[in-house]
Amino acid sequence: AGLAATGALLEAAGARGVIAGQVAESSLSPGDPVERLWDVFRLKTGALFRAALCLPAIAAGSSEVDALGRLGDAFGIAFQIADDLEDDFATARTQFHHVASFLDIGAARAEGHRVLRDAMGALIEPRLRTALAPFVAELERKLDRDNGAGESERK
After folding, report:
1. CB contact at 8 A, 141 and 76
2. pTM for the whole thing?
């Protein structure tokens, strides 16, 4: 388990995780499909959530490591969407690493909720769902929070 956990941590922090996300983010450009942005979010923020969820599961010998990895990816995407929703969408449209350059606020919120729902649904162990439910509920509240900017100011 120790070697597997070390490998998972190195993957998350290294050239197949956060570093790969930095590189991918720098190559985003107008007209890219939104899936490229999700890849950036998954590689950067998702990699950190994936490590946080998978390392204890690896150490415990859990059969849920793959599902928890996908959940970490989903947390990364949803967290970054929620973080971007706190910004002024009118200003952020020109930032190619920002969700506002790809989607309007309603579509961004819907995607955040979809990735969370799909990933939570893949967990087999009910105790994991129960343990993660407060974090997921807070992330969903963050996705739905209105930061005061009107819809007309956002893409």
Report:
1. no
2. 0.87
